[in-house]
Amino acid sequence: MEQERLVAPGSFCWNPACRDYGKVGQGNIRKYGRTQKGRQRYQCRTCKATLSETKGTVFHGRHHAQETILECLALLAERNSLAAIRRVKGVKEETVTDWLREAARHVEEVEALLLANYRLTRVQLDALWTYVGHKGEKGGIQKRPGAAASGAAPP
Ligand SMILES: [Zn+2]
To answer: How would you write the pLDDT of the chain (155 residues) with one tens digit per residue?
Structure first.
C-alpha cells in the first residue's frame, strides 16, 4: 500500500543545508548505488548528499496513514489540545501521544516531513517535543523514569 509512507524514500532531500531540502517532486533525487547492506541509496543532485531508503520510514506499519499521523502532530505543534485533535481527526488522545513518542525517536525525519508539508515554525516544533520530555536534539529520546514504564501501551 502506498499509504504506508507519506513520502517515499528518495523523493526529497533530507539535508537541512540544501536549497531543495524537504521539497517533494523537484526531480533532484536520483538513485545512487547501494549501501553495504544492499539497500537502495539516493543522491541529491543539488547538494550532492547521499541518503538511504531507510529514511522516511518512521511510521512504517502503523494502522493509520502517515498523512493522518503527521496532521495530528502538526495540529499538536500548533497548540491544539489532544481533545481538540480527537474532535477534529477522530483519533484518541493516547494514540496521538503514542505517535509523538515514536516520532521523538526520529526527530530529524519527522521535522523534515512536518516542515516540508505544514507551515510550522522552529518554535512550534520544539514545543512539540516537550510534550514527550524531549528537546528535539539529535541522538535519541531522553529516558524519564515513569515515562518508560507507561510507554508500552497496547496497540
Ligand atoms: Zn540536497
So the answer is: 333 344 555 667 777 778 887 777 678 888 888 878 787 888 889 999 887 765 545 665 567 777 788 899 999 999 999 999 999 999 999 999 988 988 888 887 788 778 877 888 888 998 898 888 755 444 444 444 444 444 444 45
Q: Give distance in angstroms: CA of 73 to centre of ligand 1.
A: 25
Distance CA 22, CA 118 (A): 11
Gap from CA of 56 to ligand 1 centroid (Å): 15
CA 14 – ligand 1 centroid, Å: 7
* Grid cell 537502495 in the structure block, residue: 40
Degrees to nearest 5, angle at CA 62 with 146 and 65: 125
Q: State in Å: Cα 110 to ligand 1 middle.
A: 17
Cβ atoms of 99 and 68 within 8 Å: the answer is no
**From the CA of 32, how far away is ligand 1's center (Å)?**
13
Ligand 1 centre to CA of 16 (Å) is 8
- Report whether 19 contacts 30 (CB < 8 A): no
